[in-house]
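Q: How do we represent a protein-ligand complex in a form that can be generated token by token?
A: Start from the inputs.
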Amino acid sequence: MDEIQKGKRYQRLYVQVESLMAKSNDPTARMATIAALLHNKLEYFFWTGFYMLKNGVLTVGPYQGAVACLELAKDKGVCWAAINSQKTVIVPDVEKFPGHIACDSRSKSEIVVPVRYQGAIIGVLDVDSKELNSFDETDAGELEKIVELIFI
Ligand code: SME
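Then emit the structure tokens for the protein with methionine sulfoxide bound:
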């Protein structure tokens, strides 16, 4: 998918997410809806979901895709890298990311976006693709905008 096409797809998705968020204020309902929408509308999304900090343990939240790790070892892997750096992390090739946690060997590239509540990081949105190099700055910027809608 070229960048213009991808940008347009995300713009349509943003509008859809916005209108769906109006139907419930519950963060779990909202995260479940975001995961389902993104996963089913963007075909390169092979695993789409949230890991949330629960008493310091990064624990799986609402997701779509194959069964994934329930908890992630602290300070290891891509999700923890996003939390510790407080930034979105794009991984073009998971095998080249030191400490990457492979919940499914079919995942080849990944993006992890921090989720913030009142300025503090409370979890992440994690997306895996079966292809290398699936995620770029367009995905990063658009997914960052979408996760902001969870607490609006
Ligand atoms: N790869 C992630 C673990 C979660 S799975 O991708 C669903 C990581 O390294 O943190």
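The chain has four helices and six strands. The mean pLDDT is 97.
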